[in-house]
């Protein structure tokens, strides 16, 4: 593998890793701050993707679809939190696993009833349909760069939110000690709702943004869910920074594995996770 | 784990009655149902064994494993590798080999996994199971994504397993055997220790118990019993495929155990039967007003699961107990 | 409220278990005896192959409707199961149709891995099994059976015609890429055989799990290898994506893309201009200039408001084959000897051209060379005439 090829594969890894980060960030927030095991997170990704496909087909613009999809999914998240998840914060992890697994089924069918069972392509917006020539043979699609850009932007935004705003402070406090925070007069109920809605929104937007690159297809949620959990666990539950580092690591291992060791490529990520946990049983950056 | 969930370890009369009735129904079923249905109930019984093996780990010891199906699938694959394409292989040595093989895998993986706690335990068990899954999925030499076919059921010499009714009763015998074995285990010193670990591991350690060893033992025995179920599954369906070791299969097992009621093995059986039965029921729903209810079976299944979690947290057995005429244990 | 006593519990539990058992057996009891022929479709109605499943069913029904909607004079009762292209549920789904619904004819399926499940059930039960697409070799080789007929192709047939074409165009070093499952592996078999025999070298063999469509890393690898050409097998939604990604990575025009024709069947609308210039080999092409093909295309487009593709043709031919068989036995499908004999000796007047059954029940047919021009597969020649599958290991004939 020569240098040029290596660098391009590196670029591929980073792009994949950043997408994973968007999903994992939401999951680690929900898990770290509210202690809820949410197996339905992949379904939010899928619902977002199909919603984005439908909005894009209806309005003709991917940007509008992203905006509309983000708004709708945040609303959906708020509704879901209020009706269902709110009552499960103090319940057993097992109950949460069961609940969210039931939700996976329901969301799959919702998707089937609303948007059908076919695989769909989402067109890349005309403005981004060009490619940057990298070598004599290979060009890099501009849209993938745009995708990575969006993910980085969101990552920066999340970082600023959590560490530099009052809301972020309250979120961190609530994660640290819920009861103490509540007794200080902070409406922890509202914080949880916001965090949950943010998580759902992040996953849905990840789905819409990734749709032109990965297509929308039934069951796209379950494949990405497992990867997501791996990233969250490697990074440390509740740590956004950990999720970013872990996502990039997973992107590297997955991409280079596919090319260098195809026989064991899919296994490698799990080997990575097992190794990390044996070295640091609580993940890389556990608070 | 949870103290809010009261585990019915001593089965009240109401539940014992239900179990006896169930056994009678199972004994009689092949005479009233067709071959197809006998096969379906055989599959339910095999899944009941699988669920009970997980109950030992989850309900009794309090270890939630999202990768239990790995041992189930492994035993099925072992049978597939041991069966030559043209003729059957003997039951009497392949069954122990498969069970021991699954148990060995569980012991090895357990050695790495049992040292973690809580959510990390759940995740690491899933990770190892996924590793096994991809090992088989990506390598054609192990069958690849298309799986391996087992063309002949194992040869039992004394009785003919190719006969669907004989196979049914053999499976029923295994089911009853595993149940009795596990009930015995529950009340043995080992079982009492495992229970204690679930309720409060620190206290057990303070009392001098080496909890690592006990947890590893539970993990291994559970894996071996899952292997028994996997072997029977491979023999019955004649086909193994990486999905048998996958995340979905493990999640199904967890659901069956919770659905039925944890910690007493009767719940695992009831959960398995209910789950599978509902699956078939929902898939066969007719089309009403242009809406294919059967096609969208996941909607009904998902709603059912959600309702159970909200209203029947102690599972079906909890419900039976509540309406069964006994005072709350 | 009084607590229910033991006897009430006993009766209630017995009632529940009784109801449950009846619920299991009910579909069988309710099914009245009738003289209708039971046809069961086991096809993908969800996922990347869903459009293929729909096309096959549409065309099969059209073939039957053209002849009055009956088989050998008997009315038809239809059954359907969605196999979701999931090999793990193959045996279970096929058993449903055969043992529970008791179909007389099983039409299915698309995915080669799922087909193995059907093959198992077909061999065990003896049900008449018609394969409208899945090209898995074993079905007409080692696991062939008198009651199994295929109207489509074997996985290596299209690619066996591809190798020489590529070498003749001067592309002596190629990279092969596909999904890693039975269909992909067997397509490679055909390609390898014909390409190396014609003097070509296969630089590397790339694969990704089915139905994964993340091609980016592998496309980068292809660019780094700098082969003369790329040959591939993809189908359905995945094929459209591959064509688009190939172009977006700048490889279109620099490294010519070839494939078995499934790459460009039914996907040209979705793929757009990215597909122009791709050469493929297949036993059918939409632009075949024959009266039969034109008539078929017109009828299909009128009935279903969709353009037909090779999958529709295969479904149509399955219907034609079944009609010939049913007519020969005047609807008495239990007369297996005569039924199978009629189907074995059938010559199908298909939109793809006339073809006949090999001894192993696989089509013997011409393979056309096509190139994509403006959302159409234009025929530029015949890549192989009357190509038959080797049928190695089949113990019939």
Instruction: Quote the beta fraction of chain C.
Output: 15-25%
> For this structure, what is the CATH homologous superfamily of the largest domain in chain C?
Response regulator
Low-confidence stretches of chain C: none
Largest two-chain interface? A-B, 46 and 46 residues
Number of helices of chain A: 11
Rounded radius of gyration of chain C (Å) = 23 Å
Q: What structural class is derived from the secondary structure elements of chain A?
A: mainly alpha
Question: How do the SSEs of chain C run, as a string of H and E?
Answer: HEHEHEHEEHHEHEHEHEHEHHHEEEE
Instruction: Give the total of domains of chain C.
Output: 2
Order of helices and strands of chain A: HHHHEEHHHHHHH
Q: What is the straight-line distance between the termini of chain A?
A: 39 Å
How far apart, in Å, are the first and last alpha carbons of chain C?
Answer: 76 Å
Q: How would you describe the shape of chain A?
A: globular
Summary keywords:
heterotrimer, B: 329 residues, mainly alpha, ABC transporter involved in vitamin B12 uptake, BtuC, two-stranded antiparallel ribbon, two-stranded antiparallel sheet, 69% helix, C: 397 residues, alpha/beta, Rossmann fold, nine-stranded mixed beta sheet, five-stranded parallel beta sheet
Could you describe the 3D structure shown?
The complex is a heterotrimer of chains A (287), B (329) and C (397). With 287 residues, chain A is mainly α. Chain A has a domain of 192 residues. In chain A, a hairpin with a 5-residue loop joins strand 1 and strand 2. In chain A, helix 3 packs antiparallel against helix 8 and helix 9 runs parallel beside helix 11. The longest helix of chain A has 32 residues. Chain B is globular and about 55 Å long. In chain B, strand 3 and strand 4 form a beta hairpin. Chain B is 69% helix and 2% strand. Chain B is an all-alpha fold and 329 residues long. In chain B, helix 3 packs across helix 9, helix 10 packs across helix 11 and helix 11 runs antiparallel to helix 12. In chain C, the strands form two sheets. In chain C, strands 6, 7, 8, 9, 10, 11, 12, 13 and 14 form a nine-stranded mixed sheet that branches. The N and C termini of chain C lie far apart (76 Å). The model of chain C has no long low-confidence stretch (mean pLDDT 90). Chains A and B meet through helix 4, helix 9 and helix 11 of A and helix 5, helix 10 and helix 12 of B.
